Write the structure tokens for this entry.
Amino acid sequence: MADTEVDEQSDDGAAGAARANRQHARDERRAARLAKQIGAFARRHGGAAEGQLAHLGQAGTRIVLVAQDGDWGDLVAPSHDVALKAVEKSGITVHESFDGEFAANVRTGPYEWTRMAGIQLGGPANPTSP
């Protein structure tokens, strides 16, 4: 009877280790894919980019990117660890917060201005409440 309990525990431990290994491999692939996307963004916009990580709760972590030419974009990683691995692999500079000189590098266009100001500048009106 005692042998059976030990065998069941070792089976659970092996299954848990296998799950952890699969999750680690999946996270590595996700980080590599995100790093590739970050690198492509940087190359399309002057060759360099900087970033900032913003925690989104259960949704993951947002990687905000600002390119050398002022264009910006973002990606969402499933976890903060995956986001950290992605920015490390991509080699971009990561800022603690989105303020100061980093924020000043962002170039906004007419689309962003109309979306921020809405109907005041001819953008789409806010939807009415039901």
Q: What stands out?
A: The mean pLDDT is 84. The first helix runs from residue 2 to 44.
